[in-house]
Amino acid sequence: MTEPTSSIAQHLWQTIRIGSPVVVSRAGFVGLVVVDTVMSGRASADELAYFSIASGPQLFLMMLGIGLLRGAPVLTAQAYGAGDARQIGVLWRVITLHGLLLSAVLIPFAVLGEPMLGLLGQSPELAQGGGRVMMIFAVSLPFYLVWVGAVNLLEGLGRTIPAMVITTAGVIANIGVNWIFVFGHWGAPAMGAEGAQLGTTIVRGVMMVILLTYILTHPRFRAFALIGPLRRLWQQGKTLRRLGYPMGLATGFEALAFAAMTILAGLLGKAPLAAFQTANSLVSLVFMIAIGIGAGTAVRVAQAVGRGDRRTVIISAWSGTGLASLVLAIIGLVFIFAPESMARLYVGEDHIVALAAPVFQVAGLLLVFHGAQTVLMASLRGIGDVWMPTAVQFVGGWILMLPIGAILAFTAGFGAPGLMGGLLAGGVFVSAALVWRFSAMSRQDFVRL
Question: 3-state SS of the chain: helix, strand, coil percent to 5?
C-alpha cells in the first residue's frame, strides 16, 4: 500500500513509478493502431484512407467502453488505500462482467460501419472500404474491453508493469502478423487495411489471455478472492455504473468529437484525410504520456482519499499536472520545428507530407493543453467528481472544437490544419475550466465512494 509522502520530489517519483509503465502500455495499445496506420499506408494511399475513415468510429466505440469502465481504478485504489481486500475481489468480477456486457452492446454499431459512414456523407468507396475494416474490428471488442477491465484492476493496485510488458510484446508481434495479412505473405491474401485490422484483432485476443492468466495465477492476488460467486454482481456494480455513466459520456463526447473531425477530414478528400490522420495518430501516441501520468496521479489521489490524506490528494494532483504539461510542451516543440520529419514517419508521398506539416505544427501547440486537462480530469475522477468535468468536456468538444474546426477548415479555407485548430481551441477551454474546477473542489472534504 502506498504510504503518505511529504516532499514534491517524492510525490513526483511515486506518480512516475506508477505512471511510467502506464505510458508505455497505453502508448503500446495506441501503437497497435499506429502500426496498422503505417502499414496500411505502405500498402497504398487508398488502403490508408480506408483505415483512416474507420478509425474515427473505432475510437468512439473504444473510448465509450473505456469511459464506462473508468470508475474501476478509482474504486480499486480507494479500496486498496482503505485496506479492504474483499471489496477488490468483488470489483474484479463486477468489472469483467461489465466489460463483456458492454462489448455485446457495442458490437452491432461496429458491424453497421458501412451504412453509418455512408449516412455521414462519405463516398461509396470510402464507406465500403471503411465498413469492411469495422466488421473485423467488431470481433476484437470483447478482447479489448476485458483487457481494459483487467488493466484497470492492476492500475488501481499500483501494479502497472505487467500490462506494459505484455503490450510492448504485442506491438512487436503486431508488426509480424500485419506483415502476413497486409501484404499477403506465407500464403495469406494481401488484405491491406482489412489485414491490418485482422492482425490487431488476433494480437488483442492473445494479450487478453496472457494478462488474465497472470492475474488469476499470481500468488499476491489470492488475498483478494478474485474467483467467487457471480450472484448480485449487477447490483454490486451500482457504484461502478454511477461513476461510469458520466465518465462514459465524457469520453464518448470527446471520442465522438474526434471521430467527427475525422469525418470532416474525409469530406476534404483523400489526401487531406491522410494528412490529418497522420498528425492525429502521432498526437494520440504522444497523448499516452499524459494518460500515463494521469493514471499514476489518479491512483495516488484515490489511494489518499481512501486513507483520508487530504494533503497528498492536493499535492499529487498539481504536481502531476505540472509534470504532464512540461513533458508534452517539450515534445510539442519537435512537432512545431520538425513537422516534415514527423509526417515522414507515416507516409512517403511528398504531397501528403506537405499537407501534413502545418497540421503537425498546430498539434504541437495543442499538446501542452492536452497534458494539463488529462491529468486534471484524472485527479477529479480520483476524488469522485465526474459530472462537472463531463459538462466541461461536452462544451469543449461540441460547442467549441467542432464548430471552430469546421469554420477554419471549410469557411476560412485552412483545410486539415483548420481542423487541428479546432482541437486546439477546445483543449485551451477544457484545461482552463478544469484548473478552476479542481481548485474549487480542493477546498472541500474528500470522501471515499
Answer: 85, 0, 15
Task: Identify the domain containing residue 56 by its residue range.
Answer: 8-441
**DSSP H stretches of helix in 157-217:** 161-183, 193-217
Q: How far apart are CA 233 and CA 49, in angstroms?
A: 43
Residues 409-429: tens digit of each pLDDT? 999 989 889 999 999 999 999
Burial class (CB in 10 A: 0-12, 13-18, 19+), 78: buried
In a domain, residue 78? The reply is yes
Half-sphere exposure of 97 (CA within 13 A, CB side): 21
128 lies in a domain? yes
In this structure, is the dihedral angle defined by the CA atoms of residues 28, 29, 30 and 35, taken in order, positive or negative?
A: positive
Q: Where are the alpha helices (DSSP H) in 113-123?
A: 113-119
End-to-end Cα separation, the chain, in angstroms: 18
Q: Is residue 2 in a domain?
A: no
Q: Look at the chain and report how many structural domains it folds into.
A: 1
Residue 75 lies in a domain: yes
Which DSSP helix (H) or strand (E) runs through 44?
A: none
Low-confidence ranges of the chain (pLDDT < 50): 1-5
Residue 448 CB-density burial (10 A; 0-12 exposed, 13-18 middle, 19+ buried): middle
pLDDT digits over 174-211, tens only?
Answer: 899 989 998 888 888 888 888 888 999 999 999 999 99
